[in-house]
Amino acid sequence: MRFTKMLIPTVRETPSEATAESHKLMLRAGYVRQLAAGLYIYLPLGWRVLSRINRILREEMDAIGAQEVSMPVLQPAEVWQQTGRWFDIKEEMFRLKDRGGRDMCLGMTHEETMTWLASREIRSYRQLPQVWYQIQTKLRDEARPKSGILRTREFLMKDSYSFDASAEGLEKSYKLHEDAYHRIFARCGLKFRQVESDTGMMGGAVAHEFMAPSPSGEDDIVFCAACGYQANSEIADSAPRALKPKPGGEEPYSDVHTPEKRTVEEVGRFLKEPAERFIKSILLIAAEGPVLALLRGDLQLHEKKLQRLIGPFRAAGKPEVADILGVEAGFIGPMGHDGVKIVADPVLKTGSYITGANRPHYHKRGVRADAHFRADWHDIHVAAKGDGCPRCGSALAVEKAIEIGNIFQLGTKYSAALNAVFLNESGNEEPLIMGSYGIGPARIAAAVIEQSHDKDGIIWPEAIAPFDVEVIPLAGDDPEVENAARVIYGELVRNGIEALIDDRDLRAGVKLKDADLIGIPKQIIVGQRNLREGLVELKDRRTRESRLIRPGETQDALKPRE
RNA sequence: CGGGGCGUAGCGCAGUCCGGCUAGCGCACCUGCUUUGGGAGCAGGGGGUCGGAGGUUCAAAUCCUCUCGCCCCGACCA
To answer: A41 Cβ partners below 8 Å, 6+ apart?
Structure first.
């Protein structure tokens, strides 16, 4: 491809709205343009990258026996009403009516339509398993699109769905996807981790996410270098560091005067005690009534973990605290609130603590679980760096990551709702057992850039670069240089190498800067100086190492991909 | 949805507090000459409903009201 025939609008200055590194570079290097919040145009270079990623996706999905199909983006409300998600999902679903007044929506995922298809076409266990996938646009009216193409309202997604006759079959389909995902992300040149994840509103029992570590990521992942435990912080267990035993043994259960000292920090400073000697009591209002959450003073409440236990909740206001617990906020303790459900983090099972005395301006010392309060024990704290691994006890690490893929064991949630059943060997009707598996190609591209760039631009891995090599003639008005470059370019193309030739009539510096920005992994630089010696320069974008070769050797120097 | 920031030429910005010549600068773009291995120099030139609407005023990019859009933090994220 010739540079002058291709729309590659590079810009020197970074548009001010971009903050994520991948976003800045994709704009500057002419890969994407923004139409509106969360809506992006993929320019020729960007689209080539996505196409290459999608080709890898197809190869690996086909290799595990998955079959590509195409589903409507516009969907009738009925199937979504049958699974209940028409009502569960709120503003995030784009809804509209057709001219006949029928409720419709734009597909944000395709469990419903895939299951609908299965309900009509699958009859017998003999047809199973089936795995269907598509690479298609999804639409979600995101509350907050952000970070360039990392979180958009319209995005491409590879989603596949497995249908099995048994739990063992689902396990097998799940494992096939797991392995395929490892190959896909490795081929794309990503550093990634597979972590245990929340099943969320997808339902089902088992789920994993594939995470690419990056400071632009929206998720925190927790992992143990010693035993390999890896989980999204939304579900990660951890053992917070243990308390040092109080010198002088157990404190007696006693009141202490703490005038006007309400927060753990204030009381801690006043009593000269560290935060971990406190019980933090947080009153929340759930659908079924008030819940008192108890944590050690140095730990953070993990709202997602608690929500899984008690459903959606909100913080209680000051008047509600006084009303429900009979004491001003700031002096709450877990003792003696018989009518209120109490959920406590297990770290509080041992040791004695300081907490509110349930009367203004007083706290209690020597408060111990069971002796002074009872609770339901559940892990509700945020796992932090340095906490103990739940499996082996070693110190955990935490890092930010971009979710690039996920896999769910759905079970029969959708098949039961849509009556997608089959006859088993005994002739009995059973619901299909499903899994669903997603990958975001644009997120792969962005995550790769996040992980692979330098101050001058993008550094593409060979497998997903928009071109294999860029031929850069310098001094374009020298016919010999121009001719030599054209010959090299023609040879490369004939040998099946995807090449871009920068045939623009521009100064050397501009072309070289643009080449680094665009990030094609190999550059062949043709200049007067070297050409006089019968040589051209082959340069590696990543290492910046270059060597001089003869123009006729370029095809050999660049092995064709794969 | 809560909090914050920003809308002035294609891009990056100044000017806005404290109203007042024809709205400016850099990059990009066009013409000419010179230059040509890491974002060239000189000279000339084109390009603006100052996000939009209403208001105050002799006079509004600037003050007031409303509104739209974009970004960031949080909530949300099937």
So the answer is: A32, A33, A34, A35
Convert the pLDDT of each residue in A79-121 to its tens digit.
999 999 999 998 999 999 999 999 999 999 999 999 999 999 9
Can you tell me which residue has its alpha carbon closest to the C1' of nucleotide B39?
Answer: A510
Tell me which of A489 and A239 has the higher pLDDT. Answer: A489
**The pLDDT of residue A239 is above 90:** no
Give the tens place of pLDDT for each residue, A164-208. 999 999 999 999 999 999 999 999 999 999 999 987 655 567 899
Gap from A119 CA to B78 C1', in Å? 21
What CATH class does A469-557 carry? Answer: alpha beta
CA angle A486/A492/A496 to nearest 5° reads 140
The pLDDT of residue A201 is: 57
Task: Give domain A254-377's CATH architecture.
Answer: Alpha-Beta Complex (3.90)
Question: Rounded to whole angstroms, how far apart are CA atoms A550 and A535?
Answer: 5
Give the Å distances, CA to CA, from A29 to A156, A435, A441: 21, 38, 19
Mean per-residue pLDDT for A59-87?
97
Task: Indicate the helix (H) or strand (E) that contains A413.
Answer: helix A413-417
d(CA A441, CA A447): 10
Q: Is the CB of A145 under 7 A from strand B?
A: yes
Architecture of domain A3-236+398-449: 2-Layer Sandwich (3.30)
The answer to whether A525 CB sits below 7 Å from nucleic acid chain B is yes
Token pair of A478 as six digits: 């020298």
> Domain coordinates of chain A in residue numbers?
3-236+398-449, 254-377, 469-557
Confirm if A513 and A529 have CB atoms less than 8 A apart. Answer: no
CA of A37 to C1' of B8 (A): 22
Instruction: Verify cis geometry, omega within 30 degrees of 0, for the bond prior to A346.
Output: no
Q: Report the distance separating Cα A406 and Cα A178, nearest Å.
A: 9
Positions 314-353 of A with beta carbon below 7 A from strand B are none
pLDDT at A562 exceeding the cut of 50:
no
CA distance A445 to A460: 9
A278-317 residues near strand B (Cβ < 7 Å): 303, 307
